[in-house]
């Protein structure tokens, strides 16, 4: 979208009662724009201060869902003009409009929804569909394989008006946010199976070198203030490029990497995808 197109779309959605916010290029996809000069590049840590968490001390909410608004005066204000110049898409805060988005990220998730959920307003996405229901609830990333719940304290990218009729939020969707999914674990045997002679021991590095590499990757992920998706991928790629073929990586090593990524807000599915993508890039 151009600046004018993004702003016009935002104003139209705000007029319909959808709290909107701009998105920029970030990481593996689109990310929110910090809407004040002090937070450019997520210098303050990037957390909405409506959450009373994180280092941000801005006088008003300026990040992600907390910045979403239906006020046209705010959207067209001088403060927001630089924001729209970097915007590439528009998102909205579903919970702020009393909505819940069931984000179905692949064909298997769509099949599950068709078998398990009542029909509702449906919007096509790049890889799947958004099923939108009337009613707000707690958001949940990785609610089940290929399914994220976006409602309160979350944002969803605007992808069009969709088809179908908005249905009431069903109990089957509410139940997804109450379940605790099992911790995501890659299958390290896929890596171990590539080991050369050495009986699972790193043939070219000492154990201390391996430990230092894992520690540095965890620290890199933990220190990320923006582009978390990309940082996680780079960290996984660095570990696998050095130790992905020698058979020295264990469950414990990989779980440390996944735990660090999930602490930064990555879903189990995103961790698994990043790990698989890094392996594919290296031909493992």
Task: Write a concise synopsis of the structure shown.
The protein has ten helices and ten strands. The protein has 284 residues and is an alpha+beta fold.
Which terms summarize this structure?
10 strands, 284 residues, 4-stranded antiparallel sheet, 6-stranded mixed sheet, 15% strand, 10 helices, 3 domains, alpha+beta
Number of helical segments? Answer: 10
Helix residue percentage? 25-40%
Q: How many extended strands?
A: 10
Number of domain units = 3
How many angstroms separate the termini? Answer: 37 Å
**Measured on Cα atoms, how large is the radius of gyration?**
21 Å
Give a written overview of the molecule.
By secondary structure, the protein is α+β, with helices and mostly antiparallel strands. It folds into 3 domains: 3-92, no CATH class; 95-176, no CATH class; 188-282, no CATH class. Helix content is 37%, strand content 15%. The protein is built from 10 helices and 10 strands. It has helices spanning 3-15, 72-75, 81-86, 107-116, 171-176, 188-192, 207-222, 228-243, 251-263, 268-282, and strands at residues 20-26, 29-32, 89-92, 99-104, 121-124, 129-134, 140-144, 147-150, 156-157, 167-168. Strands 4, 5, 6, 7, 8 and 10 form a 6-stranded mixed sheet that branches. The longest helix has 16 residues, at 207-222. It is globular.
